[in-house]
Specification:
Layout lengths: L1 H8 L53 H15 L2 H14 L9 H11 L6 H11 L1
Helix pairs in contact: 3-4
Length: 131
Amino acid sequence: SPLAHEAFLRRDRGTYGMAWAAGTGAPQSGLLSSVLPFPFPNLKTPVDGLLRCGDSCFPGIGTPSAAASGAICANTMNSVGKHIDLLEEASKRDPLYKFLSPGLMGRVYQPLVEGMTPSAELKGEQSQDAD
């Protein structure tokens, strides 16, 4: 209920998602504003290196969407190969986590997206940090 959201999640008046003026795109919605009529903001913020995730940004409201925004942030910061390696390692530590193994599909997926992660902006930041 809105009262529970206000009490336990500290949401203003128990609201869901982000509020913005009707008929306008969300603040910092980036390229999405040309595709979706009222898009959620993307994960970038005005602060370099600070990303956002949750129900107040793309892809939107709800647990699956909030979880997906976290995955998008993680894939923006680290390569897909690193994620696949970590999943494989976790799946081998305990039989309980065997379901985490990316298997063959993970290795097929990796070359398709490897060049896109981490994001170009963060690749530049990481190379500066390495110097």
